[in-house]
Amino acid sequence: MVCARAAFAASARYAGRPGSSNVAVHSPPERPPLVLASASPRRRELLARIGVTPDRVLPVDIDETPRKAELPRLLAARLAREKAEAAHAAAPDALVLAADTVVGVGRRILGKPADATEARRFLDLLSGRRHRVMTGICLIRPDGKRSERLVTTILAFQRLTEAQIAQHLDSDEWQGVAGGYQIQKRAEAWTRFLSGSHSNVVGLPLFETAQLLRGAGWLRP
Ligand SMILES: Cc1cn([C@H]2C[C@H](O)[C@@H](COP(=O)(O)OP(=O)(O)OP(=O)(O)O)O2)c(=O)[nH]c1=O
């Protein structure tokens, strides 16, 4: 009897939508499908490291332009939420996970460079300086309940030589990534200091992501 009640309680967590109130008490608690609202192959790879395979990958297209005077961390949190909300509207019965990563130098936001000229400007700014990488993550349950985290990692690059910058710009490593670099590639060799989560820099802080998935009952404790 105690077990049946526990099973019902677990199922009832996802029973807030119409037509799902007659959940069989004896069936195992149902997990909603997990939707990763992201086109980033890095986020899929990071999730795979902790044994999580999304049931569906659903990239969403939102306007990522910062608002006037918007701080980097507020931008990362807002964009993660907007990505998650767009995917939730398209897949309302799923548990939706979205993230956004932004590089910040002071109040300045370094998003994905539009071209090699902008990538060079970013590298000149980051050379020999401390900067922060912020990832906002947002999880939305089928009942619309939202859980969010904002994770910051602090890094310092060595002073970059002209040859290092030229080599980097010749590669494709600056394309499609915040700040115009990838810590998981050659930028790791420029990093003399990193404080905080490494996976956060790559696009998805795994400790906090696992916490959110556990909180939603999707990952077992
Ligand atoms: C700083 C840094 C960022 N990145 C990546 C993580 C993110 O994929 C990307 C930041 O852009 P995002 O807009 O956060 O993500 P995305 O456009 O790649 O994917 P989606 O919006 O569909 O989820 O930069 C690295 O891979 N390595 C790094 O060292």
Give the gist of this structure.
Keywords: Cytoplasm, Hydrolase, Nucleotide metabolism. This protein has 221 residues and is α/β, with parallel strands linked by helices.
Give the SSE layout.
Blueprint: H1 2-12, E1 34-36, H2 41-49, E2 56-57, H3 72-90, E3 95-105, E4 108-110, H4 116-126, E5 130-140, E6 146-157, H5 162-170, E7 191-195, H6 198-202, H7 206-215
Parallel strand pairs: 1-2, 1-3
Antiparallel strand pairs: 3-4, 3-5, 5-6, 6-7
Cofactor: a divalent metal cation
Catalytic activity: UTP + H2O = UMP + diphosphate + H(+); dTTP + H2O = dTMP + diphosphate + H(+)
Keywords: Cytoplasm, Hydrolase, Nucleotide metabolism
Description of the molecule:
Helix content is 33%, strand content 21%. It is α/β, with parallel strands linked by helices and 221 residues long. The chain has one domain: Maf protein (Alpha-Beta Complex). The two termini are 23 Å apart. Bound molecules: thymidine-5'-triphosphate. Thymidine-5'-triphosphate binds next to helix 2, strand 3 and helix 6. The site of thymidine-5'-triphosphate (TTP) has 22 residues, from helix 2, strand 3 and helix 6.
Kindly list the characteristics that best describe this protein.
Maf-like; disordered N terminus; alpha/beta; binds thymidine-5'-triphosphate; single chain; Maf protein; 33% helix; 221 residues
Q: Approximately how much helix is present in the residues? A: 25-40%
The overall average pLDDT, rounded, is 90
Overall geometric form = elongated
Largest sheet data? 7 strands, mixed
CATH architecture: Alpha-Beta Complex
The number of strands is: 7
Question: Which ligands are bound?
Answer: thymidine-5'-triphosphate
Q: How much of the polypeptide forms β-strand, as a percent range?
A: 15-25%
Quote the distance from N terminus to C terminus. 23 Å
State the helix count.
7
Class from helix and strand fractions = alpha/beta
Radius of gyration: 20 Å
User: Which spans of ≥5 residues are poorly predicted at pLDDT below 50?
Assistant: 1-21
